[in-house]
């Protein structure tokens, strides 16, 4: 279905055409008409399906012709990276629409606070915010959310995982009783359903391809030992010199700088990003990665939902993620919106069980590839667990126990 069939204003269609978008994704086809009809909804869709456009486009459509200066839409997200990403998309989609937006998040200086305060006081049309920083402004008393028409909770499952449930409920207490609420989540645990019952009114529920990587992702895994990982990554990168956008995920912040140093020593210029970096530096690194000035970026799981970069060719899981759901979000950074991509996971013997949990979640077996050259000689056995020793019978156990008791009696004199 083309965007021209979704009853969007000609100004938005012009912006979409300018950005090269013609075909709506499945989630956009289902969600946009419902939002235009002012329905509450809870939508479950994997990352990379175009869900940001699914809620931003119809909201901007409603803002066309808005005269009064007040905050119309509040979008709450779990991380500052996602807040920045969504606000950038709003700027792109609203190129021909008179709608103002700002991202409200922590980590900045006094000037950032004043800029956010001014936008909240004067009434930017759309506020994209992380819960903690938004509450800090609300408690100062100068924020008026009494005329908000739309509340969007994006990546609601991640916000609950991060412990933001109380903050979200407190923020909702500042909103008028009557508003449209849109909840988007990559997964649908019971906690999300319970929250939906509290804050949504007769919602429409939509679920698309829940908890599975996009079809365009070529997935594979290597069985290796921990000390072989850097060498294997070097081999993988050497074979893919034509890839100009590569993302490497580690489950540990402490490993990021170690991996970056090792790659740089091996002749693969790389940069790292984690919550340890100052906000300005993080934004600079992300800008350079988006613009392809940085070819290889090493990141933590905090980044797995906060990086929106077109045409990431390869995702490498240096560590198997602790949570099987995080695997879906990691590999979802590539093959976005019907594109193609590659995802490679390095698996140590201790991580085999995590890999099995991922395969159960995505209902698919990830192909196992033999490491190259010398690495293959020392490759861990492909058998998940060593063959168990046969259990001795009770007679043997009693006989062994008797021998041990006689030995210790004799030894003690």
Describe the structure.
The structure is a single chain. With 413 residues, the protein is of the alpha/beta class. It folds into two domains: 3-208, Rossmann fold; 217-377, P-loop containing nucleotide triphosphate hydrolases (Rossmann fold, 3-Layer(aba) Sandwich), CATH 3.40.50. Helices cover 41% and strands 15% of the residues. It has helices at residues 10-18, 26-36, 51-63, 80-93, 110-122, 131-138, 156-161, 165-172, 190-199, 229-238, 253-265, 279-290, 324-331, 352-362, 373-377, 394-412; strands at residues 41-45, 73-76, 101-104, 126-129, 150-153, 180-185, 204-208, 217-223, 246-249, 270-273, 296-299, 314-317, 341-347. A seven-stranded parallel beta sheet has the order 3-4-2-5-6-1-7, with helices on both faces. β10 (270-273), α12 and β11 form a beta-alpha-beta unit. α13 crosses α14. The longest helix is centred in the C-terminal third of the chain and has 19 residues, at 394-412. The protein is globular and about 70 Å long. Residues 383-391 have low confidence and may be disordered.
Q: Secondary structure elements and their pairing?
A:
Elements: H1 10-18, H2 26-36, E1 41-45, H3 51-63, E2 73-76, H4 80-93, E3 101-104, H5 110-122, E4 126-129, H6 131-138, E5 150-153, H7 156-161, H8 165-172, E6 180-185, H9 190-199, E7 204-208, E8 217-223, H10 229-238, E9 246-249, H11 253-265, E10 270-273, H12 279-290, E11 296-299, E12 314-317, H13 324-331, E13 341-347, H14 352-362, H15 373-377, H16 394-412
Parallel strand pairs: 1-6, 1-7, 2-4, 2-5, 3-4, 5-6, 8-13, 9-11, 9-12, 10-11, 12-13
Helix pairs in contact: 2-3, 3-4, 6-8, 13-14
């Amino acid at each position: 279905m083309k965007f021209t069939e979704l009853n969007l204003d000609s100004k938005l269609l012009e912006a979409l055409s300018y950005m090269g978008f013609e075909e709506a994704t499945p989630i956009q086809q289902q969600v946009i008409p419902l939002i235009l009809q002012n329905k509450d909804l809870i939508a479950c869709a994997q990352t990379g399906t175009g869900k940001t456009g699914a809620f931003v486009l119809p909201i901007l459509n409603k803002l066309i012709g808005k005269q009064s200066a007040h905050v119309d839409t509040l979008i709450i997200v779990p991380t500052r990276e996602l807040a920045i990403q969504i606000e950038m998309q709003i700027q792109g989609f609203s190129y021909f629409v008179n709608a103002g937006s700002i991202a409200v998040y922590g980590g900045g200086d006094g000037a950032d606070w004043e800029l956010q305060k001014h936008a909240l006081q004067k009434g930017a049309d759309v506020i994209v915010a992380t819960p903690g920083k938004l509450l800090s402004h609300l408690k100062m008393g100068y924020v008026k959310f009494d005329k908000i028409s739309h509340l969007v909770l994006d990546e609601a499952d991640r916000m609950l995982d991060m412990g933001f449930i109380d903050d979200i409920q407190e923020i909702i207490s500042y909103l008028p009783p009557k508003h449209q609420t849109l909840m988007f989540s990559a997964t649908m645990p019971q906690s999300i359903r319970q929250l939906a019952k509290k804050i949504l009114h007769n919602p429409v529920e939509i679920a698309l391809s829940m908890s599975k990587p996009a079809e365009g992702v070529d997935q594979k895994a290597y069985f290796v030992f921990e000390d072989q990982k850097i060498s294997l990554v070097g081999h993988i990168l050497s074979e893919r010199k034509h890839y100009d956008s590569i993302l490497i995920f580690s489950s540990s912040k402490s490993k990021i700088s170690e991996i970056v140093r090792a790659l740089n020593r091996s002749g693969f210029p790389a940069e790292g990003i984690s919550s340890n970096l100052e906000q300005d530096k993080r934004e600079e690194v992300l800008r350079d990665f988006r613009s392809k000035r940085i070819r290889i970026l090493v990141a933590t799981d905090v980044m797995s939902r906060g990086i929106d970069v077109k045409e990431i060719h390869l995702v490498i899981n240096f560590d198997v993620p602790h949570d099987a759901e995080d695997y879906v979000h990691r590999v979802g950074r590539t093959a976005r919106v019907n594109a193609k991509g590659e995802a490679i996971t390095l698996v140590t013997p201790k991580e085999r069980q995590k890999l099995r949990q991922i395969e159960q979640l995505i209902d698919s077996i990830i192909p196992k590839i033999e490491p190259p050259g010398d690495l293959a000689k020392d490759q861990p056995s492909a058998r998940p667990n060593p063959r168990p020793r046969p259990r001795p019978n009770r007679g043997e156990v009693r006989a062994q126990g008797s021998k041990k008791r006689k030995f210790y009696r004799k030894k003690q004199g």
